From TrEMBL:
<comment type="similarity">
    <text>Belongs to the zinc-containing alcohol dehydrogenase family.</text>
</comment>
<keyword id="KW-0560">Oxidoreductase</keyword>
<dbReference type="InterPro" id="IPR011032">
    <property type="entry name" value="GroES-like_sf"/>
</dbReference>
<dbReference type="Pfam" id="PF00107">
    <property type="entry name" value="ADH_zinc_N"/>
</dbReference>
<dbReference type="GO" id="GO:0046294">
    <property type="term" value="P:formaldehyde catabolic process"/>
</dbReference>
<dbReference type="GO" id="GO:0008270">
    <property type="term" value="F:zinc ion binding"/>
</dbReference>
<dbReference type="InterPro" id="IPR036291">
    <property type="entry name" value="NAD(P)-bd_dom_sf"/>
</dbReference>
<dbReference type="Pfam" id="PF08240">
    <property type="entry name" value="ADH_N"/>
</dbReference>
<dbReference type="GO" id="GO:0051903">
    <property type="term" value="F:S-(hydroxymethyl)glutathione dehydrogenase [NAD(P)+] activity"/>
</dbReference>
<dbReference type="InterPro" id="IPR020843">
    <property type="entry name" value="ER"/>
</dbReference>
<feature type="domain" description="Enoyl reductase (ER)">
    <location>
        <begin position="9"/>
        <end position="361"/>
    </location>
</feature>
<dbReference type="GO" id="GO:0005829">
    <property type="term" value="C:cytosol"/>
</dbReference>
<keyword id="KW-0479">Metal-binding</keyword>
<keyword id="KW-0862">Zinc</keyword>
<dbReference type="InterPro" id="IPR013149">
    <property type="entry name" value="ADH-like_C"/>
</dbReference>
<keyword id="KW-0520">NAD</keyword>
<dbReference type="InterPro" id="IPR013154">
    <property type="entry name" value="ADH-like_N"/>
</dbReference>
Length: 369
């Protein structure tokens, strides 16, 4: 079938094109895309930090409506509302242990442009294969995905807000709820109050952390962090965050969450911890970090862990997050600004300069909640 999509090539970041999409195989689902979040990971492909074969259709925070299902699909049916998550194999040790975010086949399934069959379902009109990104390529009007990529959600929730639940919001909240798993009353610090950081912070509030400290360089974002649950905020341009965090907590924080990828910030996220503290990082950084393992890690028995996709299984965490959203515990609508698909470059620019925390592209302008 013909679809409209934003094609990324070596010549242009984005160009609207008519492309061809394969019909779903027995274990695949055809989804009409309603909206798609813009994520920092998309930007890291554009700057070649994460190489994906071109031409490609990016986008990996899609939400939509099931159009057609393959003969073996049982979890969804036509008409269901769904959020699209990342691709995972479902049969490696980590997947079987309930940690799809640590799938041993994460890289080939999400970044090589091909699905588990070794092909992409997307092609140009000249039959040139187009890379599928994260198993979904949601900057398009329709997509054909593996059944494991789709998560059924309630029809009474506005689909336009839900796409980011499939990556950024899941990553932030899952890192806290699944990987750090803080006990109520423990102290928590987030470095970077973008969509991922604020999602982690809201999860820390749900977990009962206290104090909850947000660190950033933008006062406007810190004000929003207060509104969403931060008990304390620190502008690291004006104050030493390590000293201030230890002043607030007494012994240092139990948990820190680093989302920026800036080496100096990562060091602060380690040094602000108390003995036996834990730091989780999800960031994609460009610069190397050098530190003395004995001084920074061993002497205070610190744990530093990298987390992919919030150590989450999309089918388990996304419905929980949607419930939190419906209950007013997870007001992600306060992070969002909508853009038309043709304004995609503006959406990326606003994300980069920090004027919009979570841009969402409206793919289907006819949709109403």
């Amino acid at each position: 079938m013909e679809i409209q999509a934003m094609l990324t090539t070596t010549e242009k970041d984005f160009e609207r094109k008519t492309l061809l999409l394969d019909e779903p195989k027995a274990d695949e689902v055809l989804v009409k895309i309603i909206a798609s979040g813009v994520c920092h990971t998309d930007a890291t492909v554009l700057d070649r930090t994460l190489p994906v074969p071109y031409p490609a259709v990016l986008g990996h925070e899609g939400s939509g409506i099931v159009e057609k299902v393959g003969s073996n699909v049982t979890s969804v049916q036509p008409g269901d509302h769904v959020v699209l998550g990342f691709a995972y194999c479902g049969h490696c040790d980590n997947c079987l242990d309930g940690n799809a975010g640590g799938c041993e086949n994460m890289m080939p399934l999400n970044f090589t442009g091909k699905n588990k069959y070794g092909v992409s379902p997307i092609h140009t009109e000249d039959n040139v294969e187009v890379s599928q990104f994260f198993g979904q390529s949601s900057f398009s009007s329709y997509t054909t995905v593996d059944e494991k990529n789709v998560v059924k959600v309630d029809k009474d929730v506005d689909l336009r807000y839900l796409g980011p639940f499939g990556c950024g919001i899941m990553t932030g909240s899952g890192t806290v709820l699944n990987s750090l798993a803080p006990e109520a009353g423990t102290s928590f610090v987030v470095f970077g109050t973008g969509a991922v950081g604020l999602s982690g912070m809201m999860a820390a509030k749900i977990a009962g952390c206290y104090p909850i400290i947000a660190v950033d360089i933008h006062d406007s974002r810190l004000e929003l962090a207060k509104e969403l649950g931060a008990t304390h905020t620190i502008n690291s341009r004006n104050e030493d965050p390590v000293e201030k965090i230890k002043e607030i907590t007494g012994k240092g924080a139990h948990y820190s969450f680093e989302t920026t990828g800036v080496p100096e910030v990562t060091l602060s996220a380690l040094r602000c911890l108390r003995v036996k503290g834990e730091c989780a990082t999800v960031a994609v950084g460009k610069r190397d970090l050098t530190f003395n393992v004995t001084n920074e890690i061993v002497l205070n028995a610190i744990t530093l862990k990298g987390v992919i996709e919030g150590d989450a299984v999309p089918q388990l965490i996304i419905p929980k997050l949607v419930t939190f959203y419906k209950n007013g515990q997870f007001p992600v609508d306060k992070l969002v600004k909508f853009y038309e698909l043709d304004d995609i470059e503006k959406a990326f620019e606003d994300s980069k300069n920090g004027s919009t925390i979570k841009p969402i592209l409206i793919i289907d302008k006819e949709y109403t909640a």
